User: Which sequence fits this backbone?
């Protein structure tokens, strides 16, 4: 199961990277909300058969939480992310995207009262550490690339 999970995780990473590159190209021509609308629409159509065949029992609260997840944490967040890709490097966008896991765990703790396990906390710390290191390296690179300002007008 661990091998299969790893393969699925790596496949998801590769497809997300491809989608991010495509989004970056499309972001120069279209609004983030338009790109998000079509992406999420296609995902909904592809996943609809699962809902039809599984027929899960849903309460009103469940529908409300799904709407919150879909509109705020997916639609709005993804629209802003794609819109921001116009001005940030792909590496920075990737780091921000990896932070989504940490935001999800934190949101589940606050909104749903789901306390993360030790492994989830450790994983979040690793992600935050990688984001911090990448940010520090990126800022050092920018300082090396920018010419010294002499103060002479």
Assistant:
């Amino acid at each position: 199961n661990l091998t299969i999970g790893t393969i699925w995780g790596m496949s998801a990473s590769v497809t997300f990277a491809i989608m991010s590159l495509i989004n970056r190209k499309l972001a120069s021509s279209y609004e983030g909300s338009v790109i998000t609308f079509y992406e999420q629409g296609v995902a909904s159509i592809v996943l609809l058969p699962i809902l039809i065949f599984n027929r899960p029992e849903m309460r009103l609260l469940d529908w409300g939480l799904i709407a919150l997840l879909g509109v705020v944490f997916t639609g709005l967040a993804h629209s802003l992310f794609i819109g921001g890709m116009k001005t940030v490097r792909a590496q920075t966008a990737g780091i921000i995207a990896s932070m989504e896991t940490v935001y999800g765990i934190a949101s589940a703790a606050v909104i749903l009262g789901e306390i993360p396990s030790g492994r989830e906390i450790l994983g979040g710390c690793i992600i935050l550490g990688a984001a911090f290191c990448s940010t520090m390296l990126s800022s050092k690179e920018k300082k090396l690339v920018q010419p010294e300002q002499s103060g002479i007008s």
